[in-house]
Please model this.
Amino acid sequence: MAVATPTRAFGASIRRREDPRLITGRGKFTDDIHLANAATAMFVRSPHGHARIVSIDTSAASAHPGVLGVYTFENVKGFISGMPCAWPTTNTGDTLKLATYPPLADGKVRYFGEAVALVVAVDPNTAADAVDLVHVDYDPLPAVINNEAAVAPGAPLIHDSAPGNQAFRWSLVGGDTNGALAHADVRISQTLVNQRLIATPLETRCAVADYNPASGEVTVWVTSQNPHIHRLLIALSTGIPEHKIRVIAGDVGGGFGAKIPYYAGEALCIFASKELGVPVRWSESRSENYVATAHGRDHIQHIEVGATKEGKITALKVTAYASLGAYPSTAAPGVPTWLFGCIIQGPYDIPNNEVHVIGVYTNTTPTDAYRGAGRPEATYMLERVIDLVAAKVGRDPVEVRRLNFVKKDQFPFKVANGTLTYDSGDYELALDQALHTVDYTHLRAWQEEQRAAGKLVGIGFSSYVEICGLGPSSAANAMGFAGGLYDSATIRVHPTGKVTVFTGVHSHGQGHETSFAQIVARDLGLKVDDVDVIHGDTDKVQHGMGTYGSRSAAVGGGALHMAGMKIRAKAQKIAAHLLEVAEEDIEWVDDAFRVKGSPDKAKTIPDCAFAAYMAGNLPAGVTPVLEEQHWYDPENFVFPFGTHICVVEVDRETGETHIKRYVAIDDCGEIINPMLRDGQVHGGIAQGIAQALWEEAVYDENGQLLSGSLMDYAIPKASVMPHLELGHTVTPSPHNPLGVKGIGEAGTIASTPAVVNAVMDALSPLGIHHIDMPLRPAKVWAAIDAASH
Amino acid sequence: MEETHVGISVEVNGRPHRSTVEPRTLLVDYLRDDLGLTGTHIGCDTGQCGACTVIVDGQSVKSCMVLAVQADGAHVRTVEGLAQDGRYHAVQQGFWEKHGLQCGFCTPGFMMQSVQILEDNPDPSDQEIRDALEGNLCRCTGYQNIVEAVKAAGATIRSGAETMALGTGVGA
Model:
C-alpha cells in the first residue's frame, strides 16, 4: 500500500487509526464496562406470540438469595410507561394509529420474546436462576403473522387502539398512473415478498447504567448508533433532565440500523440503577437479540406496470403491506413510507407512478431500519419489474434499463411524485463500465454455450439510486421525523498544532476516526496521525444526530469541512499578522499560508495555533485560541447510484445457486479513503446476497420465531461468499461541501436484485419468471421440478 | 455457595492464575469477568459465531464451548497475548494493513483462528483460508479483506520480516 503524503491524505487508502486498540483486545465495548458493585439485569420473556397475562408470581424469584429486585409493568410504569416513537408519520389525514409500546408487557403479550418481567441480581448466574423462578400464567390468543392476513376481516385484534390491525395508510401519487396503465401496450401484474430479516451485528445490544442518587445524574453506556438521540429519548420518556444524562456509545460492534432505536432494556437498566442505588448492566444473549432487537424489511408488494412495446415504462403502481411488528419502534413508520415510497421510480424516468403503503401490526418483533431501510425494498421491486418488462417485450434487460434511465442531461431531476430532486448522476456511465468489466458480449456468448451444454447459467443486473446523507432538517420535519437531520463538528487545534475533532456522527465499523482525520488533515495541512477524532460521548461531543442512512461522510463530513474552513479563516488573519502582510496578500497553498509571489514566506496551522494560544500578538479583533464549531444542515439529500452484475450457475439437481462472478460499479461521489469505501461495499454486498439466497426470519402460525438463533438464521460464512470485483465512477454531489454521497448502504441495496435477476435469468429457459426470496436450494429445486413436468 | 466452587490453575498469555469458579462457568466468562481479559468477545449462545475463539494448549477452541474447569492446568492464548516484545503479531499486522476489520467485534476470534491456520500451514490458498474460517462469523467485511489479511500475515511469517512496533502510526 502506498503511504500517503500529508497533502494527499484525502483520497488515499490509509490504514485505520481505530485498529490498534481493536487488534490488541483493548477496544471498549459496552459489555467490557465493569463497574464496582454492579448488578446484572435479565428479562423474563414471553413464550407466546399473543396471550393475555392472567398472573405473574414473582415471590419465589424475589426470595432467591442474591436477587436484588423483580419488577413488572406495574412497578416500572411510574418511571417509564411507553417507548417513544420518533417518526410518527402519515400523509393520509388521521389514519395513524400509534399503539402504546410498554417497556414491560401491560396485561398482554403481543410477540414471542416480549419482556414480561425484569430481574436484577448480584451476578449473571443468580439472575439466570431467578428468571426461571418467575411464574407467569398465560391465556394464549390466536396470533397473526402475515401482513395481509392481519388486516383481513376477522383477524385477531392486537391493539384495541388500532382497529383492523392497521397502523396507517400512506400514499404518494405522481402523474396519471391509471390513465397510463389503460393505454399501455403491455401490462404486468406481480406480487413480490421482501422477507423479514434480522440485522445480526456480531455484538448484541448491551447497556450499563450508573445512577448517582446524590447528584441525580446518570451515565449510560449503550450500544447506540446515535447517542444524542438516545439521550433525548431517555429524557423525554423518563423525565430525567437531559443535562443530567450522559450517554456513552464507545466501541460498538456493528449496527446496521438495529442500534438506532431506543429500547426498553436500556431504559430499564436506568430504572433499576435508580431503584437499587447500584450500577446495573444488561447484555443480550444472541437468542434474546433475535427476539428483542428490531427486525427489518417485511413487505408484501402488489405491482402493476404498464409499458410500451419497446419496454419504456409508462406507469407503475405499487401497493405494499408493511409490518411494523407488534409495536411502533423508534423510526419504524418512516421506513416503509418515505424511505421507500419517495424513491419508487429509482433511476428511471417513469412519469406516472403511485405508491400506497398499508402499515400493519402483526404478532412479531417490532421492525425498524435495517441497512438500506426502505430503499432495498424499492430497488428490489423496481429491478425485478425491469426484468419482467424486458422478458415481456423480448428485449435485453440492459437495453430496457438504458431506455428508461434518467439521462445525464436531466439533472437536477425531480421525481414524478415531487418529493425528491436527484442532485447529479450519470447512470449509463456506471452501466457501461459494468458491461465493459464483464465483457458483456462475450459473456452472453458464453451463456449460450453453457445453455447448449445443459447448464442453468444466468446474468443478473441491478441499477439503483438511493437517498443518502439524511438530510435537510426541513425535509425531515416535513416527512414527520421528530428531529433535525443536520450534523456537527468541533475542531480543537491545540497549542502545538495537534488536533482533536469532535463529531456528532458515530462510527461502529465505518472508520470515521480515519476518514474524518483525512478530511481535517487535508483542510489544515496536517498529518493524519496528528488528528484524533472523538465521537460517541454526549458529555464530550456537541449535539449531533448519529449515523444511519449513509449520512456520516455527507453530513458529518460536511460539518467537519465547514468547521475546518472557519479554522482556516481565523488562522489566515493570524498568519498575515505574523508575516506582516495584508490578509489578501497571502494564500493557502498545499499545507500553509504563503505570501503571494514569495511562497517560502509561510505560516502553517501549528504556527498560527501557537500564536493564538500565546495570545499576546494577535491582530485586532481576533480572539485567543484556535477552536471552531459548525452545524451543517444540507440543502438536499445526496443520491449515490451504480450498476451491479451477478453471474450465477444453478445446479439443476440440487437447486443450489453458485455465484460465478460479481461486479459492482458504484458512484458515491468523491472518495475519501478507497480502502474503506471498498470495505463498506464488500460488507453491504454480503448482506444483500444473503437476503437473496439465504436469510429469512421465519415464524410459525402461533408466532414462534423458528429462526431464533445463529443455528437457524443463515448469515453468510467465508466459504459461501464469492470474490467481489469492485469499480467506481465519480460524479460529485454539486451541493455537498466535499462532493461526497455516501456508500454504507449501496452494496446491500444493489446486490439483492442482481442475484435474484441472475437466478431468474438462469431459470428462464424453463419458463420460470419469478420465485420469492430467499432462493434456497429446496425452493429453487421445487420450481425446477414443477417446470419440468 | 462457596463450597460449590472449584479451584483451578490456568496459565493465560504466559501468566499463571489460581482461581475458584462455579463449575458451570464458561471459559470465556472466566477470561472476561474473572481475569478482566475483555478482548475475547461473546457473539452468540450456540457456538456458531467464533468471536470467543482462543488457543488452548496449541489448539483453537471456542471458549464459550469449554468450561473454565476444563482449562485447569492448560496454557491459554488470547488476543491480549498476540503482540510480543513490543511488536505486533504478523496476523494483527495483516488485519490492520488489509482492512480486515470494521467494527472489530469478531476480530479477536478471527485473529486467533488465523494464528491457528497459519501455524498449521503458513501458505494456505484462498479456499483453504475460507474453509478454515467456517467457524467464525463476520457481519461487516464480507470476508474478502479477512482472506487478504490472512494471506498477508502468511507472507510476513514466511519471509521472517520484522513486524511493526506497537505505537506505530498510520504513516500519513
